[in-house]
Amino acid sequence: MARQSFPEGFLWGAATSAQQIEGGRRAQGRGESIWDRFAAVSGKIEDGSNPDVACDHYRLWRDDIERMRWLGLGAYRFSISWPRIMPAGAGAINAAGLDFYDALVDGLLAEGIEPFPTLYHWDLPQALQDRGGWGARDTAEGFVEYAAAVSRRLGDRVKQWTTHNEPWCIATLGHEEGHHAPGHLDPAEALRAAHHLLLSHGWATAAIRREVSDAEVGIVLNYCPAYPASDSEADVDAARWFDGFFNRWYLDPVMRGAYPEDAVADRIVRGHLVSPDLPFEQDGDLAAIAAPVDFLGLNYYSRNIMQADAAGRPRDVKTVPAEDLTDMGWEVYPDGLHASLMRVHREYAPGKIYIAENGAAYTDPVDADGRIADQRRITYHQGHCLAARRAIADGVPLAGYFVWSLLDNFEWGFGFTKRFGLFGVDFDTQQRRPKDSAFWYRDVVAANAVDDTVTPSNQGESRALDR
Ligand code: FCB
Predict the structure, then answer these.
(1) Is residue 161 one of the residues assigned to a domain?
(2) Does the C-beta of 172 come closer than 6 Å to ligand 1?
(3) Does residue 441 have its Cβ closer than 6 Å to ligand 1?
(4) What is the mean pLDDT of each run of 10 residues along the chain (467 residues)?
């Protein structure tokens, strides 16, 4: 067994988001978010749960920082709750909301953990949804006001700023497929939402730079490589279609200042656009969207294998046995991470890349010794870290890796049924328990290296959090 070392200064982190962990639904003036509203609708959340309490991180954040210290994290990626800062969506600032993040940032810095906030991880103030949400251009303006207020307050200590997390999910899952808040089924609105998200990213980038002269600003996109199921022209085109729909619709405007022509044409064929002139685009928008970023964050979980069905419609097929899929039904495919990093590096050449999320949902029991033996999660992360290491050797400017997630949490429409955490959470008692993967990751962080063969973690001992 050999160890693959990472470059000195490589940033090891873990990620969470406000709506998924904080709880504190009505604490200290927080307003309603679209996810609070969505979760209250019967049938929207698989287990009938809601994020009102989640991991109760709003009260337990000091304990959670202690867990990060124990892991040895170099950075913590979290998100800021817009409805906590601006309960009515715009205008008045809720001082207690800013105070919360101010204290969190100080707590992180006291442990030498770099705060890596994301301004928008899906929890739009409901008040803004009532005025049109991301389908309305005004929401992009509201986002800039919010970004300026937060960066003004935290910017003396926070230097790494992310505007949005995964605009594809917001636009498509929220506005086209209805699986996420606000639960709409309107492809034309989804395209407007995507544009306003991208525009607000560009505008907010400038606003953050005005507030924080030494800020590094970026965006986090989800990236999923598409492999054709066969060499047939139809399958190859299905893969091209998915890549345009999912990856390039966001990468191209941000990195090149243009929407991908073939993907625009696909939308016309489907009747979502009437012509290549995007009705929601105004002069100067694409230049604003393409404001240079200091880093690009990529979230990688799996790949798609694309096939054209009998009617020629593209669909994702799984070709591996069910036991090789995670609880999300996603194939474990570390080579796809290497391929994705290489492609983004070669074709878009961002100056710096972070893997802003990578992780696996598996449910493993707490055994009689209080241990959670999650070897499958260790194997998943180990494989992906080794793929990331290969990409670095191949020239990709990869600067850090964030595990999704620090804690088991509220997994959107799946409620609490999908568990991604390094720490298991008992949602009745709020007890956190380090899984075997937490011990594994702690060793990786300490060594700045990953073993290149997978070792079974079941050495039989019960491991307690050694504080
Ligand atoms: C990503 C999200 C994150 C979590 C993981 C599993 O798409 O950014 O909040 O849901 O997937």
Answers:
(1) yes
(2) no
(3) no
(4) 95 99 98 98 98 98 98 99 97 97 99 99 98 98 98 98 99 98 98 99 98 98 98 98 98 98 98 97 98 99 97 95 93 98 98 99 97 97 98 98 99 98 98 98 98 61 40
Q: Nearest 5°: phi and psi at 367?
A: -85, 180
DSSP structural state of residue 331 = B
Which burial class, exposed, middle or buried, applies to 406 when counting CB atoms under 10 A from its CB (0-12, 13-18, 19+)? buried
- Residue 461 in any domain: the answer is no
Ligand 1 neighbour 405 (Cβ under 6 A): no
Q: What is the largest CA-CA distance in the chain?
A: 64
To test the pocket of ligand 1, the residue of 165, 357, 405 to mutate (highest count of ligand atoms within 8 Å of its CB) is 357
Is the CB–ligand 1 distance for residue 299 below 6 Å? yes
Ligand 1 atom index nearest CA of 361 = 6
**457 within some domain:** no
Find how far residue 25's CA is from the centre of its chain.
Answer: 21
- Ligand 1 centre and the CA of 148: distance in Å? 25
Task: Evaluate: CB of 17 within 6 angstroms of ligand 1.
Answer: yes
Could you give the C-alpha distances from 60 to 174, 285, 376, in angstroms and in order? 30, 41, 28
The number of distinct structural domains making up the chain is 1
Predicted pLDDT at 456: 53
Residue 233 CA to ligand 1 centre (angstroms): 32
What domain range includes position 142?
Answer: 3-451
Ligand 1 centroid to Cα of residue 118, in Å, is 13
Q: Is residue 466 part of a domain?
A: no
The CATH number that applies at residue 313 is 3.20.20.80
The pTM of the full predicted model, rounded to 2 decimals, is 0.97
